[in-house]
Amino acid sequence: MAAERLVVIGGDAAGMSAASQARRFRGPDELDIVAFERGHFTSYSACGIPYWVGGDVGQRDDLIARTPEEHRERAIDLRMRTEVTEIDVAGQRVRAVDRDSGEASWTGYDKLVIATGARPVRPELPGMDAAGVHGVQTLGDGQALLDSLDRAPGRRAVVVGAGYIGVEMAEAMLKRGFEVTVLNRGPQPMSTLDPDMGRLVHEAMDGMGITTVSGAEVTGVRTGPDGRVTAVTTDGETYPADVVVLGIGVTPETALAGAAGLPLGSHGGLLTDPSMRVMGHQNIWAGGDCVEVLDLVSGRLRHIALGTHANKHGQVIGANVGGGYGTFPGVVGTAVSKVCDLEIARTGLREKDAEAVGLRFVTATVKSTGRAGYYPGARPMTVKMLAEYRTGRLLGVQIVGREGAAKRVDIAAVALTARMTVDQVTALDLGYAPPFSPVWDPVLVAARKVNAAVREAGSA
Amino acid sequence: MAAERLVVIGGDAAGMSAASQARRFRGPDELDIVAFERGHFTSYSACGIPYWVGGDVGQRDDLIARTPEEHRERAIDLRMRTEVTEIDVAGQRVRAVDRDSGEASWTGYDKLVIATGARPVRPELPGMDAAGVHGVQTLGDGQALLDSLDRAPGRRAVVVGAGYIGVEMAEAMLKRGFEVTVLNRGPQPMSTLDPDMGRLVHEAMDGMGITTVSGAEVTGVRTGPDGRVTAVTTDGETYPADVVVLGIGVTPETALAGAAGLPLGSHGGLLTDPSMRVMGHQNIWAGGDCVEVLDLVSGRLRHIALGTHANKHGQVIGANVGGGYGTFPGVVGTAVSKVCDLEIARTGLREKDAEAVGLRFVTATVKSTGRAGYYPGARPMTVKMLAEYRTGRLLGVQIVGREGAAKRVDIAAVALTARMTVDQVTALDLGYAPPFSPVWDPVLVAARKVNAAVREAGSA
Prior knowledge:
The structure is a homodimer. Chain A is an alpha/beta fold. In chain A, 26% of the residues lie in helices and 27% in strands. Chain A contains 12 helices and 25 strands. In chain A, the strands form 7 sheets. In chain A, strands 3-2-1-7-18 form a 5-stranded parallel beta sheet. A 5-stranded parallel beta sheet of chain A has the order 9-16-10-11-12. In chain A, strand 19 and strand 20 form a beta hairpin. In chain A, helix 1 packs parallel to helix 8. The longest helix of chain A is centred in the C-terminal third of the chain and has 18 residues, at 442-459. Chain A starts with a strand and ends with a helix. At the A-B interface, helix 8, strand 21, strand 22 and helix 10 of A face helix 8, strand 21, strand 22 and helix 10 of B. Chains A, B: Residues 5-298 form the FAD/NAD(P)-binding domain.
């Protein structure tokens, strides 16, 4: 029997995890694996780019989990700098173009994995392609930005966007000695939090010397005679800039899949079942930043670009392609980040997410510390918790604080997955010792307060 | 209507939380609250004593959450230095003795809360009462030890016991400039872990310059002409000592309750229902270190002396006494600690716990890091996970490592409470960003490995 052929489009986390996992299940005599990557790198941590740009991570290659050579050693026919330009679903083949030679060829498949990732949102405004204006999606972007910093005529950086990438890049620019201004469209930075929690991030960034301008609608970029950026303009102001970093988020890279007639959701991502099989296509799987995922709390589909999901998708796809079994049940919307020593975390639904799905809720916000108050290094932490009206089901948690704030959100992530009520959360047996927590963990304090609010609201 | 009277025996976490919470529900015109405390202090953090002795916490009073005066301001009739010597259950009254005047009197109650705590195990061996030999259960013990350090003729400390208190006191003695030897009866320190994980603690303590002697059965203490300790003897060796710290664990302080005919369990603790009402007694509650608690994983009763449980018990009792409603569903056995920068955590069952209740299991142990491997400060962490054979139910997790190891156990604590399988754990949506976790959190890596072991064992 001739070997089956698996074709993988995209050589980053989801695609190469799928390929590697499929290889573990089935050897080269059983399964032929061809993977196409249009860029120069495979299996790298895009999430690490801000720390490389900021200097915490010394080398670009530190971010690469597995090189093309390492993949090839595992009998994966990896074709770098080769872009798939068409998927012929009926003919079970893909057309790929060698980006150096320009040569195109068709490759047939028995099974196909689409892992084309996401692309940064780049506003269509005057000057956005100017020298000195940088996205930070790929290693190439990171290198271009680092080179640009060396050439920058001054030390003024403007970061457009105040989400995860925006605040992480603000920290990176600060560490590189730049004066940093963050332009933020919304009412507060970190729109992945409720505005009352975003305000805490704003205040902390002020304290770090980062200027955050909220409600700023960018209208364009001004350039000098050499074509390099000199300023960013908004509807109201002009912000001089020697370098501009775009951190406005990403959108699923699904033009190829869409053109092939594969099903896309309302966020532009591919639609899959829990085995990560593309809906209606027995032999096509998709995973990573190009798919939509089920939000287990709201029951809706979302698009979340995050390496940890991409890796899980890859594992599930690889098992299923290789003849094993795996499913990705969904997400609860956990995300953590930091700006300098300020930790930011969220999971589940924000107020507006709950409203959007018609869930009535109560909230409580508490201030506590990450260690016992008397223990050295105890630093403040604010926890906001949402619970469903009447049922008391936990709906979401947001945490902003210093050491120990970010990963505390995992408690809530597990509780959300288990569909616990906040009453159940109050009784959780969490780790306690003075260096690690007050005797009531901040998450428990928040749960007690919101639980009381649930009871009060229910009796009203 | 005359006010009801609530009598509370014990002025620490459980007792005073109960009193305070009951007061929130019912004012002084409705409920008369009398609390007896035989010592000098109320509501203090016994868990903080090692850090006070070690110098991390500057003042004894930093460990006191609420003073007698603060309790009295809340209309609690608190009688300090007054020891309850008898409970007359049929007569609904307690006999208390003023420890200064020696005067005894009876106080009647409508409702009674027993929160008599635990007492340290003090082996009945020659010389254990000598000067320079110290327990660390109470603030008084801590002060006596600190005074003793000043009087110590040399700088050799012997710590008897290598559980939580033992290792924390080893760190404290090290910080005070002592040469520290820990004598440990078991095969490895931290018998709350499996020996393979305890070995990692042993190795780390070696690296810190703490000498740990395992399999050491203490036979007595030698004293000098001044009556002060000079050495600790074991079945094999003699260890010179200028100060000795006993950290051998605690046992429920239930002599009073036992004499009154109240029901005690096999660990010597009071038996209660989930509302913390003493079994068979409508108007008596008990909580804190003097009760046994339900282990939700094994289904057995255990005795666990831990401030966080005591506080929860107090809240529940106070609500029930005050006319509200609360239950304490049980524990999963979570405990965290540290020795210098080594973090130690456990939750659920060890191998021998699972064996003791007839659960067949598989295990997996993985090494990972608390941050992305390329992120500065990424430090090693070992995670061991137990899952039930066939069903794959998570049974327990042990973590030993540096920064970020201890509180990661909370993920497992919540998953145990929700009775998740390790397969479900592999899919958890945990916080990921390079400064906080590798793309696969160490707990997820362990879950994947043990999940594979479950499948393999099931197909064998």
